[in-house]
Every structure is written in structure tokens, then in C-alpha cells.
Write a structure and sequence with these properties.
It contains ten helices and eight strands. With 302 residues, it is α/β, with parallel strands linked by helices. It has a domain of 194 residues: Rossmann fold (3-Layer(aba) Sandwich). The two termini are 29 Å apart.
């Protein structure tokens, strides 16, 4: 039976996360497992796992905060990972990021392919700082080639914090469940007053029409949301529309702000480290003893 494409890609691409390379469960998956439902024997003692996991989560927050503290004003752009280069949505996302980058914003994405790549590529076109917040998944995703600062997260909730904390606005391009998750998270934070003066721009009125009709005709009609909640989202159909909306809301934050310079080499934080050129290291010859166990590759344990 032929390998699944992602399995083959995982063996070839060291920028994929550890779970994808090694075929193991992600840290999010382990965290969400019920102690009573742990496979392979009796339940694991709670005190032997989760309390220690808190330190890893804390360290991930610290690393994210440290990497992004000086990026300056930024806009986070979301969208499908399944849109190829050359597609109209890809080109519009690229142009949107270029305009925002030229205006002075850094660009943050999920760091993967598709519309995330398009936005990072647009930031690169503008000479703006291009940031990718990648996530450990069992089947994808590698960091795209247009990211200047990449942070690899194990936990979705840590990653989501970075998307919101360091952004002045969200731009939501067409996407699937992940994109809808980020959209609903942003709307909840605004609705509950956790973040303020935070524009959420939905790109492509036609694509989002069904969602907005459902919000209005079902949620609003049944009293699940208020009429004012519908004003939390703005629609745009061109990159220029997005630029105009965000500048009207957040343009003032660009004045006199110090920004992190674009690094000469891509920076990697988290599961994959910096990729600046290194001097070649001579490898030790393989053991000729047939009874000697194979030496594990260091990359496999990271």
C-alpha cells in the first residue's frame, strides 16, 4: 500500500512538527485524554502527568511572548490551508498582506500553506515582518517558505493567545473549521469585552453570506445574540477595502512605533530551532559491530 502523501512529506521535511515526523500523538491530544481512558493498562495517576505538563505550557507561553514582544503593530490573517498558489483567493490574500505590510503592519498567520502562505508571501513582498505561529498536528503542517519568525506550538490555546495579543485586527479569508474557530473566538472575546477596538474583517461577501444569514435568521431571530453583535464583523471584497477598514480603526497605532527588524535568516522558536547556516560537522562512521544497536538520530528526539 502506498504511503499517504503527508506521511512521505513528514519523513522528508524536517520543518514538520515532531508528531507528524514520528507518527506519535500530539501534546494537545495527550492533554485532552481522560485519565480513565488512557490506553494500555490502568489509569495513569493524575499527579504523575498533568501537573508537570503545566510547566511545559508555561514555557510555551514564555517563548511565544519573548519571540513576539517587539514585532510592533500587526494584523493576523486567517484562511484555508487548501488554496493553491495562482487561485484568486491566494492572490487576493497576498495583495492584502502586501498593502498592510507597506502601511507598517507586521503580518501574523498560522504559518502553514494555502492562504497562510499567501499572506506571509505578501508581507515578504512589502518588506514587512512575516510571522508564522505553527501548531503540532498529526498530519500537517510544515512552515511555509515566506516566514521570517516561526513559532511552533504544541497547544492550540497558547497559539490562539499569540494571534490575539499581538494583533490590531483579524482578516478572515475563506476557510474551514479552523478558520471558523478563530473567527468565533475573536467574536466571543470582543462580545465579552476581553478585547476592544478590534476590527474583524470577513473577506468575500459571497463566501460568508450563508454564515451571516444563519447568524441573523437563526441566532438573532431566536435571541441567542443581540442586534449589536452583528456589527462586530465588517465585510470586504477587495484588498483595498481591507486596508481602508483597518487603517480607519487602527492606523493611529503605527505612529512612532519601534519595530523588530526583519531578520537576515528565518528564526525558529519552539519545536524547531533557528535555521541560520551552520558549519558542516563531520559525522562519526557507522558501527561495524553487527550486535551494536543503531544510533538514534538526534532530530527524532526533539
Amino acid at each position: 500500500m502506498a504511503d499517504h502523501p503527508n506521511e512521505q512529506r513528514g519523513r522528508e521535511n524536517p520543518t514538520l512538527n515532531r508528531a507528524a515526523r514520528m507518527g506519535t500523538a500530539t501534546e494537545d491530544e495527550r492533554l485532552l485524554q481522560s485519565p480513565a481512558g488512557q490506553p494500555g493498562g490502568p489509569p495513569v495517576e493524575f499527579t504523575s502527568t498533568d501537573p508537570w505538563r503545566v510547566f511545559r505550557i508555561m514555557g510555551e507561553f514564555v517563548e511565544g511572548f519573548d519571540a513576539l514582544a517587539k514585532i510592533g503593530p500587526a494584523v493576523t490573517i486567517f484562511g484555508s490551508a487548501r488554496v493553491p498558489p495562482g487561485h484568486e483567493q491566494y492572490e487576493r490574500a497576498r495583495e492584502t498582506a502586501r498593502l498592510l505590510g507597506e502601511a507598517g503592519f507586521s503580518i501574523i498567520t498560522g504559518g502553514g500553506p494555502g492562504l497562510m502562505e499567501a499572506a506571509n508571501r505578501g508581507a515578504r513582498d512589502a518588506g514587512a515582518l512575516s510571522i508564522g505561529c505553527n501548531i503540532e498536528l498529526p498530519f500537517e503542517q510544515s512552515i511555509n517558505d515566506y516566514v521570517d519568525v516561526a513559532i511552533n506550538f504544541r497547544y492550540f490555546f497558547v497559539r490562539k493567545t499569540m494571534f490575539v495579543k499581538y494583533a490590531e485586527a483579524f482578516v478572515i479569508f475563506p476557510g474551514g473549521f479552523g478558520t471558523l474557530d478563530e473567527l468565533s473566538e475573536a467574536l466571543t472575546l470582543i462580545q465579552t469585552g476581553k478585547v476592544r477596538d478590534f476590527p474583524v474583517v470577513l473577506y468575500d461577501t459571497k463566501y460568508w453570506k450563508g454564515f451571516l444569514d444563519w447568524v441573523r435568521d437563526t441566532l438573532l431571530a431566536e435571541g441567542k445574540v443581540s442586534p449589536k453583535d452583528l456589527e462586530l464583523m465588517e465585510l470586504a471584497d477587495t484588498p483595498e477595502d481591507v486596508h481602508r477598514i483597518i487603517m480607519a480603526h487602527s492606523g493611529s497605532v503605527l505612529e512612532g512605533v519601534e519595530r523588530m527588524p526583519v531578520p537576515q535568516y528565518p528564526q525558529r522558536h519552539g519545536l524547531v530551532r533557528n535555521t541560520a547556516p551552520k558549519s558542516p560537522v563531520e559525522e562519526e562512521p557507522a558501527s561495524t559491530d553487527p550486535d551494536s544497536p543503531a544510533e538514534p538520530h538526534k532530530a527524532d528526539a526533539q
